[in-house]
Design brief:
Helix content: 25-40%
Strand order of the largest sheet: 7-11-10-9-8
Radius of gyration: 17 Å
Number of helices: 5
Number of strands: 11
Distance between the termini: 47 Å
């Protein structure tokens, strides 16, 4: 279990774990660390793998086994702790963001997922489509993960992806990309980083805007 950790100026911690282990190995790792897995042992293998990896990463973050809860929107929290978390995973990665002071959102996507270009009209508004070239996969993935991260931070899966969240023009960087967005009266700072073959984006609200 090789976990990388980064700390942002806002105090947000992000833990990244490249997942190479299969479900049985992850369940064994949970048992070795005293993490409960009886409730997930009968789930489909894919879900076992996801749940076990989440619990292991939470244990790594807090130094002991903890229980993750979900609200009606599916947003996660840690039982008995006043802390904000966001978690995301793909087939090859699980990532966790933690902040004790403010809400946060986190999303990740594989860097070569060309499907995000094919459905650009479902999450990019007309202004965003003007500054995001229709053949630039990097810009599309950053935009996709940015909007998904904001939805997670807002804990509202009903947000309109296109006109509800508005990205400001940005230029992808080689290792890190900073961009800004607005949702309602929140202005968000977003940081997208490249980690191996993924883009990982963190969303943090910075101010309330007057309407």
């Amino acid at each position: 279990m090789s976990v990388q950790e980064m700390t942002y100026p806002s105090g947000t911690r992000v833990l990244l774990w490249r997942l190479d282990e299969d479900a049985p190995r992850l369940l064994d790792l949970c048992r070795e660390q005293g993490i409960q897995v009886d409730d997930i042992a009968d789930l489909p293998v894919k879900r076992q793998r996801e749940k076990a990896a989440e619990r292991l990463l939470l244990c790594q973050a807090f130094g002991r086994p903890v229980t993750m809860l979900h609200d009606g929107q599916g947003a996660p929290s840690v039982e008995g702790m006043d802390v904000n978390i966001s978690i995301t995973h793909t087939m090859r990665l699980v990532a966790l963001a933690v902040n004790k002071q403010q809400i946060i959102g986190l999303d990740a996507e594989q860097a070569d997922r060309h499907q995000v270009i094919k459905v650009r009209g479902k999450y990019l508004n007309s202004n965003e489509q003007r500054f995001i070239a229709d053949d630039n996969i990097t810009s599309h993935i950053i935009a996709w993960t940015a909007k998904e991260a904001i939805i997670k931070a807002e804990r509202n899966s009903a947000i309109d992806w296109t006109d509800g969240i508005c990205l400001e023009p940005f230029v992808p960087g080689t290792g890190e990309t900073r961009l800004w967005a607005r949702y309602g009266n929140h202005r968000y700072r977003l940081t997208a980083i490249v980690h191996q073959d993924h883009y990982i984006t963190v969303a943090e609200p910075t101010e309330h805007l007057t309407q």
